[in-house]
Design a protein that fits this description.
It is a single chain. This protein is an alpha/beta fold. The strands form five sheets. The protein has a six-stranded mixed sheet with strand order 5-4-1-2-3-6. Strands 18-19-20-16-21-22 form a six-stranded mixed sheet, with helices on both faces. It has a four-stranded antiparallel sheet with strand order 9-10-12-11. Helix 3 links the parallel strand 4 and strand 5 (154-157). Helix 15 packs across helix 20 (516-565). It is elongated. The structure holds adenosine-5'-triphosphate. The site of adenosine-5'-triphosphate has 12 residues, from helix 22. Residues 16-35 have a biased composition (Polar residues). GO terms for molecular function: ATP binding; ATP-dependent DNA damage sensor activity; mismatched DNA binding. Residues 49-65 have a biased composition (Acidic residues). One of its GO terms (cellular component) is nucleus.
Length: 850
Amino acid sequence: MTSTSSNPLSPAGQDETPSVAGTSASASGQFNSNENGDESSPLLSEGAPGEDDCEAGESSDSDSDKDEVILSVYWKNGKLGAAAYSLQNPVIFVVNDIVDDFLLGFKVLQSLFLQIQPTQVVTCKNMQPKFIHLLNNLLLGEMESRDQDLHANLHLFPDAEFRNDNSLRQVFTLRLPGEPDEYPEDEHKQFIRSLIDTSQDSMINALARLLKYLNNNLAWLCLSQQENKILGIRNMCIDQQVWINYETYRALQIFTHTAHPSLFKWTPDAHKEGLSIFGLFNRCCSKLGTKFMRTTMLQPTTNLSELTKRHEVITFCMNPAHEDVVKKMQGCIRQVQSISGMLPRLLAAQATIPQWKSLKKTNHNVLLLREICCQFADGVPFFQEAKSAIPEALYRVGHIMERIIDFQTSEQMKRFVVLPGVDNDLDKMKHTYANLSEMMMELSPLELQDLPDYIEECSVLFLPEIGFLVSIPMWKDYLTKEEMQIPGFKFKFIADRLIHYKSPRCRELDMSLGDIYLRISELELRIMLRLVQYIQQHIDSLLDSLSYVGELDCLISFAEVAKEFGYVKPTMTSEQEILIEKGRHPLQECCVSSYVPNDTFSGKTHGLVKILTGPNASGKSVYLKQVAVIAYLAHTGSFVPAKKAVLGILDQIHTRIQTTESAASQLSAFLIDLRQMNTAVCMATKSSLLIVDEFGKGTSEVDGLSLLTAFLTHLIRRGPNNCPHVILSTHFHRLVDLIGKSPLIKTYVLEHIVSEGELVYLFQLKAGQIRSSLAIEVAKANGIQPAQVNRATEILNALKDGSSITPILNHKKMQPTKMEEDFMKFFCSLELENDPNIVEVLKTRFLELK
Ligand SMILES: Nc1ncnc2c1ncn2[C@@H]1O[C@H](COP(=O)(O)OP(=O)(O)OP(=O)(O)O)[C@@H](O)[C@H]1O
């Protein structure tokens, strides 16, 4: 893999990172601490060193090995953010928020550990127990390999310290050596914002806590406050994952949230998916599949074997001979439900009957799916995995549930009812309980014998918790309290003109059988608890199986889209190349009547830097996005919209396409552009793809052109072995001349023809370069007023010739009036030479005309 996939915190990792061109010098890690030992750059500007407020014990061993790597992680709402620092490479690395959760096995957290190999971990103690448990285990593994004590290294801090506002404030206390000392507060904040994306809540929380931890442990870490030991801050890639930031996701329309159109359904969170890649691909038939697809799209992978595995499933599902099998699989998947929501209730033995039913149905269908997968295991490793991903133990779980729960009666009684044959005592009690009515019928005549003669009828009944009662219809319309008293019988209550009494016989029955219902319920509850305990042992297997089902659903969905739109399987290689034949933009091709496909060849032999020019609206942006989307899709395991695609594994996809100004970012549009460009140039390796659409248009042409030239020159100077794939479009036609010649650069235009002043777009990419964006022709074709088009043409011609341009306000006067024309004619007819009265003559004639 590429250099970024190694531990970036190692000193070697630092060396491999290129130095930075552009604004953010500190991000390069090339700065040294303040040479004068000036106290104006402390490690952190706030907080008292030497104390630590964490709950776990701290190692205060000042002689400890100083190869300390501190990782701070924060996980909330399914998003993990992290920040890390090592003493040997004193740069902070941040990992922007990324989807990770226990259903996905916290894969991101695990690869972060493998990559960073932290010696200290800082996190919030209110994280889910599963998260803390995993951290413990990971750290334990790490510590075992280093022969260190676990508890000295896991630091849990209260939740209150991870509040976004406080965290951001803490982050702004960070002073970096690249920043001028005299920066006022606002500019300092803007400087920090230009380095990291402050909208990434989890990352900011993790970073803030890391800074606080470092600040409180200066002495222990052998850092002096005078010495600035944080030399920079950089974004970090996670191993086996393609680095893509949120701006790129937005620019490529991977996800698009639009507010819900229904006024009734409107809430601040009511979003629905707009036109997006996710929307196009999501044909999953279960929530698990949709969730898996979202995660897959948020975690494009560089793992070749994983991608090959996904491709094989898609190929299988696209085969017309397997249509029925796929339908059967989908039938099962539809019945599978995500049980994570019901888990707390289930494990607390409080699951409702519908929840038990859904658990049983889910388990049953997961096993059916396993059987289908096993039938086709030969040649499809993903199906082979079904055996281990869906363990046989689940058969037993299903069998036990079926054997124990009487679903039909449970539904009627709205409580957990156990089937006969599970417990002898229970069966006996139920038998007695079932025979109670017969017994009570036999008792009624006996009770009537003991009653006064004026009472002609009675019955015996049983009420749970009250016990046995004699029920007598009212023998008079109105009965006084005294009249209701019957010797030997104790009055209980009246309901529906029936008076209920406790007789001596009832009291005896209460003693022997009265709590039978309660005992039955208690025994059934105990059986349920045992069942829950058993299920709990297999819950992880069930959750793993659900993740397998989600993945299968997602891959079937990929296959359906690939089939419908004619996508092909990309060949993934470890070479530095992107070879796409007749590529298409998956969304754009659905929006135009006929889409023109285009090729993309990038690599050492084809050139790594492509500069695209073309008239406005000739298809440059669409082409750039098309390449990025195809490259991106290939790393999700999906097929791609092209005739043929061979793609070298990419470690990062950067784009500078769309500027989303937001109040939250508090950066101007141009600063956002700069940050995106700077991040790309700093991070990109030879295996990265940079897509740049019209960088520099947010400032003056000269400034924009200069910056773009500088960024590009920096990348090209890295040579064929280190230059990333760069595809950029620009209206700065002098760019190519300014950069100079290099075999790495190839120039392209999007074909068009101008016929009789009319511009016709062909959208076909061809080698070449244009010198004009034909904006005036575009304006004409798009209904701009002829007067404005003419004036624009006039100015353009004047600029080309270098002649002067008459300001628009004087322009009208340029058109001579009739009087002026007459005057000019008269003027031309004069013999001017040697006429001393010429001025007087002219004046007189002018006044005459006026
Ligand atoms: N390959 C294509 N086939 C068919 N239509 C296309 C193709 N590419 C682009 N178009 C159409 O052209 C329109 C303009 O494309 P695009 O926005 O990419 O132009 P542009 O060159 O980037 O323009 P500008 O320089 O003004 O930003 C698209 O909205 C789409 O309708």
